[in-house]
Amino acid sequence: MTNNEKTGVSMQKEDEKLVHRGEEFLQVFKKGAEFTQELLKENERLRFRLLELEKSQPAASEAAPVPEVSKLVEKIANLEHEKQEILDRIKQVEAENQDFAARYIEIEDENNNLANLYIASYQLHSTLDFREVLQIITEIIINLVGAEEFAIMLLDEKSDELQAVATEGLERSDIPTARLGKGIIGEVASSGENYFTENVVGYERDFTAPMVCIPLKIKEHVIGVLVIYKLLMQKTEFAAVDYELFTLLAGHAATAIFSSRLYSDSERKLSTIQGFIDLLTK
């Protein structure tokens, strides 16, 4: 069983526990509401009875309450106290139900994100074609991250330059070449640390200073960067899951790109060798 599957099973068990607890809360809430209604009715009946006794024995009521009236008053006070306790308990249950509902929604979001990450990871490693890998990464960034304008830049280790190999919402010619260790893009590629602008809403596009710059790395070896310049209209900020998504995506995307490039190079070399063999054997 993979880590993702174990995490999914664990989250499913937690969902079942939360649903069971929520049902228990609802039962307590219903019983409390019913008991409160009964207390209110009993309270009203006793008050009516007290008024009848006071009317039937005005002289005794003025002098001192008769034993029956005293008992009724005491019982009413007890019922009032019990009613208040029930109301307090109902409020507590309502607050716990709200917490439960919020937690349930949070877990649902986490499960959806986990499923999306699993699908994205599977798609990335489902092909060794370099162009298909870039296309899959592009679709993931659009659908999961919510980016509208971005580029994938790869590092040429011979020249220490980063060049755009795929873009969305932009032309490849718009993205300038970046030197390793120079500027924001070069610094990210050199350090391997993520970069996020402080003001997402007020950001204005600058090709040398992107909104987001994520290193594509295999362990500590950086092979390129992902630069984002604009988010979709409905996305105004990054959520906590986005930062996890960037980290996971960067690792999986880097591995997929590296593997597909190796495969493409080996296929090209094999084709060249086969061509020489064909020439020699003719």
Structure explained in plain terms:
This protein has 282 residues and is of the alpha+beta class. It folds into two domains: 3-123, Orthogonal Bundle (Helix Hairpins); 129-270, GAF domain (Beta-Lactamase), CATH 3.30.450.40. The protein is 66% helix and 14% strand. The protein contains six helices and six strands. Strands 3-2-1-6-5-4 form a six-stranded antiparallel sheet, sandwiched between helices. α3 (67-124) runs antiparallel to α4 (130-145) and α4 packs antiparallel against α6 (240-281). The radius of gyration is 34 Å and the shape is elongated. The protein starts with a helix and ends with a helix. The mean pLDDT is 79.
In short:
The protein is of the alpha+beta class and 282 residues long. It has helices spanning 3-56, 58-63, 67-124, 130-145, 183-191, 240-281; strands at 147-156, 161-168, 178-179, 195-196, 212-218, 221-231. β1 (147-156) and β2 (161-168) form a beta hairpin.
Q: State which percent range the strand residues make up.
A: 5-15%
Largest sheet: 6 strands, antiparallel
Top CATH class of the largest domain: Alpha Beta
| Whole-angstrom Rg | 34 Å
